[in-house]
Amino acid sequence: MNATEMESRIVRYGDLKPCRTAFIDAHTPGSNQKENFTIIGGGVSESPDQHVHISIPHGFNIGAAGQPPKCRNSLHSHRTAEVFFVLSGRWRFFWGRWGTAGEVICEKGDIFNIPTGIFRGFENIGDDYGMIMAILGGDDAGGGVIWAPQVIEDARDHGLVLSQKGRLYDTKKGESLPEGVRPMPLLSADELRAFPEPAAAEVIPNHVARYWDLHALAGKAPAKVIGEAGKLRDRPGFEVDFLTRGSAQTTPAAAPFPTVLMPVTGHWRVTWDGGSATLAPGDTMSVPENLAYGCVPSMTGDAALYRVVATGDKAGPTWRG
Q: Which of 55, 151, 169, 201 has a 20 to 30 Å separation from 267 between CA atoms?
């Protein structure tokens, strides 16, 4: 594959196109300054304005959220995996019906495999604009977002209505639900009881991996972060590895499924038969299946990279054996 073809599979941080109306809370005070990015796959955006950078199916989706300080993402749930790692900033993740069941603070490079089927939200508690990168299970990311009832009610009070088909309508722009289209119904009390409320002591040890702990694990071989034998043991339809300078992929190798490379720190040089490219933190590169490639740091200093590889498993609820 030549360099031009591969360049079309690289999304540079500086070229990311945000959507500020991606979700139902886009007008809700406290959430109305967030930016959402759909990098690979269709994602779960509820807005037709969302730009998709790479539409090639991978078996998972890659997205990102950028938020200024004190901006939060409202409580929601997914039917498949949702994994975040912190690219920049300091973030508080919280969960439960009202966001009070538990919380964890994540710093640069930390990764959180959020348990499937719980309401979750997050906010930037740092002093500057921050970015978190997201991996969503499945090509259709589980069919969309499930919102806590109060989020739908707050959004309606600020001009946004979500249809039963998952499409947003902005009454501030004169939009309304088309004839015959019903609004998204609120979850019933019985339905809400099906959403778990795990405590932090249960969630954090099994679902959170710290950046410097992964550095220690990735000595001479990449650390398996998410996978059947991973530090965060799971089979969500993809695996996540953590590479450092000492565990870089110096010998070209290929995977039978698409691979995504996302640097956290340092610059990484990716080589293949036909060309090479250098990735910086915030860049995202899609490597086709069965293409042998090498991946090593190109400069001195701290270097770490997350690698996501599809497994061919069905994307479903978080698994633990």
A: 55
